[in-house]
Amino acid sequence: MFETSLSPAQHIPAPESVRDAVASALGGKAQRITMALGEVTVVVKAADYAEAALILRDDAGCLFEQLVDLCGVDYSDYRNGEYDGLRYAVVSHLLSVSLNQRVRLKVFCADDDFPVIPSVTGIWNAANWFEREAFDLFGIIFEGHADLRRILTDYGFIGHPFRKDFPVTGHVEMRYDAELKRVIYQPVTIEQREITPRIIREDGYGGLK
To answer: In terms of Cα–Cα distance, which of 29, 31, 109 is closest to 75?
Structure first.
């Protein structure tokens, strides 16, 4: 019988050890570190975001060399409007293939009216399209991104559709004009109204009396 030993990368570190490694690496740059459902989340300031991301990638106890996901968040209606913090956040999910551990990195944009944070495309190439998506849907500006333009909506689109105050119908609608032989934009023709389901109860329905 042959004996085999697992390499460190094959072991799953305890969330507490990931938390401690992140806290040690970031020091005062970590505003808050929390654990929930076995996952570690670290919050940093916008001014420290790029440096913190680089530390998380390169520190020997972290080695989060892969960005798995990045998205924007609009907290304006969080907890039914009871939330009173900064409105826009960017959340990244990082993976260390070397150490088999994960962390969630969260940063809030300092200005609600003009949300801007540094781009991390120079740290993780995978951030490219993710940041374009967050810009397109939430209007978050990623400073230093080499090609920050819309990626899901078309170039004539007005506004950012994942913002909580964006109307469900949008601002304009488009259609193909057979005479002009091109797509045109026009005011929204959908009537804004609230529909209440009508419930009709029949005597004896379903054999019930």
So the answer is: 109
**CA angle 174–175–179, rounded 5-degree value:** 135
Q: State how far the Cα of 67 lies from the Cα of 124, in Å rounded to an integer.
A: 6
40 to each of 92, 97, 127, 128, 204, how far by Cα in Å? 12, 16, 20, 24, 56
- Domain residues for the domain of 39 are 8-153
CATH number for the domain spanning 76: value is 3.30.460.80
pLDDT of residue 204: 66
Residue 144 to residues 81, 107, 117, 119, 148: CA-CA distances in angstroms?
33, 17, 9, 6, 9
* pTM for the structure as a whole: 0.81
Q: Looking at the 3D structure of the chain, how many domains does it have?
A: 1
Check residue 1 and give its pLDDT. 46
158 belongs to a structural domain: no
Q: What Rg value do the Cα atoms of the chain yield, rounded?
A: 24
Give the β-pairing of 116-118 and 101-108: unpaired
- Tell me how far apart the alpha carbons of residues 127 and 132 are, in angstroms, rounded to a whole number: 8
Instruction: Label residue 20 by pLDDT band (50, 70, 90).
Output: very high
- Amino acid of residue 164: K
